[in-house]
Every structure is written in C-alpha cells, then in structure tokens.
C-alpha cells in the first residue's frame, strides 16, 4: 500500500518558508521539493484556507507564512491537509457475519484507535516553531546557514 506523505511534504515546504525573507513562488517551492508547481499550489490552498499561509499575485508575489508558528501545531497542519489515514492496515471485511472475523476486528480496532490517539496527541505537542528550531539546530550542527537552505533561484 502506498504511504501518504502529504503531511511530511507540507512540513518540508513550511520549513523552507520559515527562513525566507520574501514570498516564494509555487515554482520555487516545487524546485526545492522536486515536484510540480501544481502540487505545491494544491497543498498550499488547504493551508491558505486555514489561514496558515497567504499568497500574493503578480511581480514579487508568492507564498508566505501568515500565522505565528508558535501557535500552530503539527495536528493543525495534519487537519489542513485533509487528516489522511494514519495507519495503512485495516480490517478484513469479507465475512462480516463470521464470529472469528468480528473478534479479530474488535481486537484490532482497539489497537488501531490507541495507536492513532498516541500519534495525534504527539502532533498536538509539537508546534511549527519547535520544528523550525530543531531545523535551525541541525543546520548549525552541519555548519550551514538558513539562507543556504532556503535559497531559491
């Protein structure tokens, strides 16, 4: 089953944007993410609808962060990208009347709910600012600057 990497991708884009001094175009962000600008616009539209980013058209326009990164959690971003399914595993539903299948599904259902609750709680604990701070720390450890990482041509 294919993994859904929307949350990771959005967070990656946002980390690049944190250090930018001017708006970034969809084309510039797509280049950083090795993807198509249409994909970036689609992703950013959901974030714009939530007020996390804003866009300006025309010369000098582009995407900027429109919120206080310390007030936004990874859970907020997760919801903005459509709250994709967390677990790829699911129930077997071929014989819903089978008592064995019902027992197995009930046991798995509890485990699935617990695992999702743990992940969602962790997403609530991490702000965009905390993620940006970790990113900056890693840059310093590698002797790089924020400008080197967010440079867009």
CATH superfamily caption of one domain: Winged helix-like DNA-binding domain superfamily/Winged helix DNA-binding domain
| CA-based shape | elongated
Oligomer: single chain
Mean pLDDT: 87
Rg from alpha-carbon coordinates: 19 Å
Q: Which spans of ≥5 residues are poorly predicted at pLDDT below 50? A: none
- The helix content, as a percent range, equals 55-70%
Content-based structural category: mainly alpha
Instruction: Provide the CATH architecture of one domain.
Output: Orthogonal Bundle
Proportion in β-strands: 5-15%
SSE order, one letter for each helix or strand: HHHEEHHHH
Main sheet properties: 2 strands, antiparallel
Straight-line N-to-C gap = 36 Å
Remind me, CATH topology of one domain?
Arc Repressor Mutant, subunit A
CATH class of one domain: Mainly Alpha
Number of helices: 7
Q: Could you give the order of strands across the largest sheet?
A: 1-2
Number of strands: 2
Protein name: Transcriptional regulator
GO molecular function: DNA-binding transcription factor activity
Organism: Phyllobacterium phragmitis
InterPro entries: Tscrpt_reg_Rrf2, WH-like_DNA-bd_sf, WH_DNA-bd_sf
């Amino acid at each position: 089953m294919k993994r859904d990497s929307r949350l990771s991708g959005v967070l990656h884009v946002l980390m690049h944007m944190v250090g930018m001094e001017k708006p970034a175009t969809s084309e510039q962000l797509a280049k950083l993410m090795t993807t198509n600008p249409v994909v970036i616009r689609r992703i950013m539209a959901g974030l714009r609808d939530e007020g996390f980013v804003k866009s300006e058209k025309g010369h000098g326009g582009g995407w900027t962060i429109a919120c206080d990164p310390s007030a936004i959690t990874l859970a907020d971003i997760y919801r903005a990208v459509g709250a994709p399914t967390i677990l790829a595993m699911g129930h077997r539903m071929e014989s819903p009347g089978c008592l064995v299948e019902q027992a197995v599904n009930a046991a798995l259902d509890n485990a699935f709910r617990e695992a999702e609750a743990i992940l969602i709680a962790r997403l609530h604990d991490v702000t965009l600012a905390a993620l940006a701070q970790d990113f900056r720390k890693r840059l310093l450890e590698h002797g790089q600057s924020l400008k080197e990482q967010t440079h867009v041509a």
